[in-house]
Amino acid sequence: MSASVASAHPLRPIWAIVVAGGSGERFGAPKQFEPLGGMRVLDWAVAAAREACDGVVLVLPAELVDGSRSAADAVVAGAESRSGSVRAGLGAVPPDAAMVLVHDAARPLASAALFAAVIAAVDAGADAALPGVPVADTLRRRDGDRANVDRAELVAVQTPQAFRADVLRSAHEGGPEATDDASLVDERGGHVVVVPGEARNRKITEPDDLVVARALLEAGRR
User: Fold this and answer.
1) Is there a contact between 34 and 20 (Cβ–Cβ < 8 Å)?
2) Are 157 and 132 in contact (CB under 8 A)?
3) What's the pLDDT at 143?
4) What letter does residue 26 receive in the DSSP assignment?
5) What is the mean pLDDT of the chain?
6) Three-state SS for 189?
């Protein structure tokens, strides 16, 4: 990171944890290793995190840590759950880190501006910041309640998510589980801010998602 960029952030150092420990059950293979625009999916996520942060920890399936090739500063073995994998990554983040970002490797197209936005929100005083995008579909509860859920009050949550390092470490004490880390901060009463997410920052879950990511990447190069 350049000196001019670094000086703009009062909370430093900033580290990122890129979570790539999943088995890819719905995809049919570990999707984080699929080719995308001349690199692997996870390489895009690591590169974006390196541009925004002072250091990057990559979390991989345990059997793939040895011999892994990555631009990350550290590579560690993940756990059976996402939260456990984040905690494994936290263990490799230096104790002097003031801010930690958590990013899913399966979101390879997050922009530099999105990383900057969540960092800026925590710099401004939030305990945590996450990107959210408006929900387009009509939502309804499965339990038979006839009332639709007001989608205007909802956002679909993305990563990267940024945290004060002490807040994130505290939120993970005791080994809690959640689908994302901002939820753990919420449960502790932390101040979580939502910044505008990006439509192209879609998560690769099914094979069709990779087809879309390739098309978006190619369109951006034109």
Assistant:
1) no
2) yes
3) 76
4) T
5) 89
6) coil
CA 169 vs. chain centroid, Å, equals 16
- 71, 35 Cβ separation under 8 angstroms: no
Residues 6+ apart with CB under 8 A from 33: 40, 41, 42
- Phi, psi for 208 (deg, rounded to 5): -60, -30
Angle (CA) 72-117-17 rounded to 5° is 25
74-81: which pairs have CB atoms within 8 A and are 24 or more residues apart?
77/21, 78/19, 78/20, 78/21, 79/21, 81/177
Domains and CATH numbers, the chain: 3-221 (3.90.550.10)
Helix runs in the chain, H state only: 3-6, 41-52, 82-90, 112-123, 165-171, 181-187, 207-221
CB distance 86 to 165 below 8 Å: no
DSSP secondary structure string for all residues of 81-102 = SHHHHHHHHHTTS-TT-SEEEE
Residue 178 burial by CB count (10 A; 0-12/13-18/19+): exposed, middle or buried? middle
Q: Is the pLDDT of residue 2 over 50?
A: no
Question: Across residues 172-198, what is the average pLDDT?
Answer: 96
Place of tokens 């978006």: 216
For residues 103 and 114, what is the distance between their CA atoms, to the nearest angstrom?
A: 11
SS3 193: strand
pTM for the full predicted model? 0.89
